[in-house]
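thought: fold this chain, then report.
action: predict
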Amino acid sequence: MSDILKEYNDIMQKKDKIVAKIAALLYRELISITPVDKGELKSDWQLTKDGSSWIISNNMEYAEIRLSPLIEDNGKAIVGSFKYPLGIQPVIEKYNIKLQKELKAIK
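observation:
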């Protein structure tokens, strides 16, 4: 195997490990910050791998209202919870910044 191909494969393996690590950290934090009434929303989080992509999802019917930023209801914004009034967007952004920083550091 050529040196360039070996270096490319090493970089791709490092990238995959970083993405998997950040996806797992984000997934755990989303679970930990999810408000609990009956616990259904919190327990419905899923982390799955689809090819080279990681997917974090929550299929509860009311997840869109509780987790998405700025959804209107009679002219009033419904966002997040009392503890996280901006919803999950700031948490996602925090991990996106962390991901970008770690990917740039690959050598």
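thought: worth noting. Helices lie at 3-33, 40-43, 63-67, 89-104.
final: tokens above.
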